[in-house]
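Re: that chain you flagged

S.,

Sorry for the slow reply, it's been a week of failed gels. I finally had a moment to sit down with the sequence you sent. For the record, here it is as I used it:
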Amino acid sequence: MSARKTARLRRARKTRARISAAGAHRLCVFRSPRHIHAQLIAPGAAVLASASTVEAGLRKELKNGGNLDAARAVGKRIAERAVAAGIERVAFDRSGFRYHGRIKALAEAAREGGLTF
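Prediction finished late last night. Pasting the structure tokens below so you have them in one place:
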């Protein structure tokens, strides 16, 4: 495993420890060069909702799954699903990625969709 990935996972572990100590629902984000994924996870580690550029509905409307437009679409969709599940307050788990670019776009779209974090 590269040093870069090891450092990212170390940052993610620290963040997740703080979130689990708070006992909050977390909005977990993962990005790859081609896609972006978001999951809403309960404190007991059960996945309540998810959204991704791999889904058939998003794939048809997006030309590329690895850009800002795709991140905004996933953020909007996960916010809709979270509000439908009755969850409005979450902790943002960026999985050790920098709060920049696609991660930031997803977070802002989720906030616009009704989530607070």
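What I noticed first: The two ends are 32 Å apart (CA to CA).

Talk soon,
D.
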